[in-house]
Amino acid sequence: MPATIVLGAQWGDEGKGRAIDYFAEHADFVVRYQGGNNAGHTIVVGEQRIALSLIPSGIHYSGCVPVIASGTVVDPKVLIEEMDMLFRRGFDPTRVRLSSNAHLIMPYHRKLDAVIERFLGKNQIGTTKKGIGPAYTDKFSRFGIRVQDLFDPKIFAEKVETALEEKNKLLARLYNTLPMDAGGIVDEYLGYAERLRPHVTDTSLLVNEAISRGDTVLFEGAQGTLLDVDHGTYPFVTSSNPTSGGALVGSGVGPKSIDEVVGVAKAYISRVGTGPFPTELHDETGERLIELGGEYGTVTGRRRRCGWLDLVALRYAVRVNGLTRLFLTKLDILSSFETLKVANAYVADGERHHEMPPQQSILYHCEPEYEELPGWGDDITGVRDFDDLPKEARRYVEHIQDVAGVAVGWVSVGPERSQLIEVS
Ligand code: GDP
Ligand code: IMO
Ligand code: MG
Fold this sequence. Notes:
Helices cover 33% and strands 20% of the residues. The strands form 5 sheets. Strands 9-7-5-2-10-1-11-15-19-20 form a 10-stranded mixed β-sheet, with helices on both faces. Strands 14, 16, 17 and 18 form a 4-stranded mixed β-sheet that branches. A two-stranded antiparallel ribbon has the order 3-4. The protein is of the alpha/beta class. It contains 12 helices and 20 strands. Bound molecules: guanosine-5'-diphosphate, 6-O-phosphoryl inosine monophosphate and magnesium ion. 6-O-phosphoryl inosine monophosphate binds at residues 8, 12-13, 38-41, 125-128, 130, 132-133, 222-224, 227, 238-239, 272-273.
């Protein structure tokens, strides 16, 4: 698997960190291509549990270079704190490479994220309030400040002052909140510059040279397909492209470099924040999924909304990403259910939708067309061979393959690194 994109096939929190950690054992580079510290990727190695927000999951292997590419938005304070945390826990953060073109999350982005959510009231998106949306907004309106600007103090100060001229008017007049001081922000950020300098480079060059050499490169998606700003449940999405196209743009590599696109999907589904969710369970079964699956956000601690596996959405993820295989996680969480449901289609206004409906309002009032499959009852956390799974569990996986239209390559049966079945 020389160059492989590994991305979320649902609404995030599918277990991407866990999947990347598995692949990274044989990787030379792991590249984060979009998003910022809205992500929370948990890795469990033995008794150690590590949650990463910005640094790619390959950091745990000494032979692997973690790269934060130009499509990301970087809060420098968070990045430095994460590197310090890793150092304290015995990992070597000196290898982290950061794109000089990545955009910076500024203090006013965080503040705007919070006040815009308040302004939206009942229509709020339920963001992580890390400043992601406002940072990408500035990037696309060409007001953004990039990592490389940190190394030119005069330009940096000018850019902050110009940005604040606009932001302070917004903050004070529209959002009725206190303006911010440019001097304090400039001093704080220039203080981060020297610490970050040794990590900053042209990551597109680095990654393309690695691919040319035949090195193994993984592209690590954050969030998930249904949170993609173009292909997700807009506006209840994040402000970047977690889908496979985003991996190319965000890393500066061409499409012909990619050998495989792996979609990570939970054996059920969850989402944090607001927005449509056809298979959401508001009953005791939903509660059971949340409790058994430990479905509480890594970043914000929020309870994740949970529901049965949505195969319409998964088939959609296969299509928009060109998935070549699935990495199915958390099958063990379903072990105690007597029967399991999966949505093969949606029905709305007498019409059956086998594909994602073109009108998003349908997602709010459609009924999932469920197929009920038998549960297995047995503990599967110790299974390592697909043929040793109970036949009902195998059937569940095979049903997913058939309806989603892609092979399941791996089945994860526990959070720990070794709790994995290699299928094909
Ligand atoms: P990510 O954002 O996609 O990396 O996913 P998160 O780390 O936010 O959430 C996934 C959670 O499920 C983490 O706590 C993982 O340790 C855990 N996890 C991953 N795979 C499995 C699995 O197969 N079984 C169980 N029980 N937990 C898993
Ligand atoms: P990982 O990488 C799940 C959701 C937020 C909100 C929406 C927009 O751990 O899978 P944002 O702060 O990005 O502007 O919020 O996106 N969201 C996530 N949900 N997993 C994530 O990351 C998420 N990152 C953002 O809850 O609904
Ligand atoms: Mg997560």
